[in-house]
Design goal:
single chain, about 300 residues, 2 domains, 4-stranded antiparallel β-sheet, about 20% strand, binds adenosine-5'-diphosphate, binds magnesium ion
Length: about 300
């Protein structure tokens, strides 16, 4: 996994000074875009998510890491209205999102992509872009998510879609069915489609999973570009090399709880974090997690 990640061309500029006070799970942020309190979700007897307090810093790239089954995807689902928690409140940009359905969450500027991509195979790449997240939420979204559609500016949507396809180097494939795309191209399409709604917070669930090494570098650059354009990124990723390289802040989940957070260099040498990865996460390069193996030497 980590060994396949090519060295990115650029060394990203890290955002620092994001938190207030002593670093600990739930630490306050100088300017949080997302604040979650007491968010929990159980499935039968299993507590999948039990987050006491989390603040996501605005304008930065935050990585959410943790072993398989830690509750990362479930937490994403809860925050974006794709699932309902048993308890808890959370605010995006100062407004409560509890009980707000997914399409309205997206309309407010918080969008997410899926661990398993949701591109519609029988639609073309361009159609996927134009329909945005319609498949996830039903008819209303089409009108509600794109403000310009209210004004009947359909050509505006097409222009925006083509511009994004150009930027994500998918323009040559615009008339191909999404089914014919590689795993990596689908990930790019999903990210491009998420940007159709001009979000302020982009949540990516394992953007690099299943992506051919040839495309990982461009995915990485695209994520860095989101930050450069002023967006906030929260992403789930197993590739510690990538996390260390692009994340400004790292949040670690295990068994539903936030067990650690902080800047990558601090978090990844934390013994609790290393413990959380042992056992269920042997395929990750622990040398990189612990910092024993310097970058580029794997
Ligand atoms: N719909 C569901 N029904 C029952 N159990 C679920 C469901 N979704 C997730 N789980 C369980 O919740 C736990 C957390 O899963 P998930 O959020 O997918 O973890 P992660 O994304 O960190 O790998 C796992 O034990 C998983 O089996
Ligand atoms: Mg997951």
């Amino acid at each position: 996994m980590s060994g396949n990640t090519p060295k990115p061309k650029t060394t990203p500029e890290k955002s620092t000074g994001l938190h207030v006070g002593e670093i600990a799970p739930g630490v306050k942020k100088v300017d949080p875009i997302l604040v979650a309190d007491g968010v929990s979700r159980s499935f039968g007897g299993l507590t999948a998510v039990d987050v006491e307090h989390l603040e996501v810093p605005r304008g930065a790239i935050t990585a959410l890491i943790g072993p398989n089954g830690a509750g990362k995807t479930t937490f994403f689902n809860l925050l974006t209205g794709f699932d309902t928690p048993d308890s808890g409140t959370w605010e995006f940009d100062g407004e409560s999102l509890a009980g707000i359905p997914a399409f309205k969450v997206a309309q407010r500027g918080q969008v997410r992509t899926f661990q398993l991509t949701k591109a519609l195979s029988l639609l073309t790449v361009l159609e996927n872009m134009k329909l945005g997240a319609k498949d996830q939420v039903g008819e209303k979204l089409w009108q509600s998510i794109f403000p310009f559609l209210w004004k009947g500016k359909e050509d505006e949507i097409e222009r925006k879609a083509l511009e994004l396809l150009e930027r994500f180097k998918l323009i040559k494939l615009k008339d191909d069915f999404a089914a014919s795309l590689s795993g990596g191209q689908r990930k790019l399409l999903e990210m491009a489609r998420a940007l159709m709604s001009e979000p302020t917070l982009v949540m990516l669930d394992e953007p690099m999973a299943g992506v051919n090494p040839a495309l990982t570098e461009s995915l990485l650059e695209h994520i860095l570009d989101l930050k450069k354009e002023g967006m906030t990124v929260l992403f789930v990723e197993h590739d510690m090399h990538m996390v260390r390289h692009i994340a400004d802040w790292v949040v670690v989940m295990a068994e539903g709880k936030i067990i650690a957070e902080g800047p990558p260099d601090v978090v990844m040498v934390n013994p609790d974090v290393v413990d959380a990865y042992l056992g269920s996460h042997q395929d990750t390069d622990l040398g990189v997690v612990t910092g024993r193996i310097p970058e580029g030497k794997q």
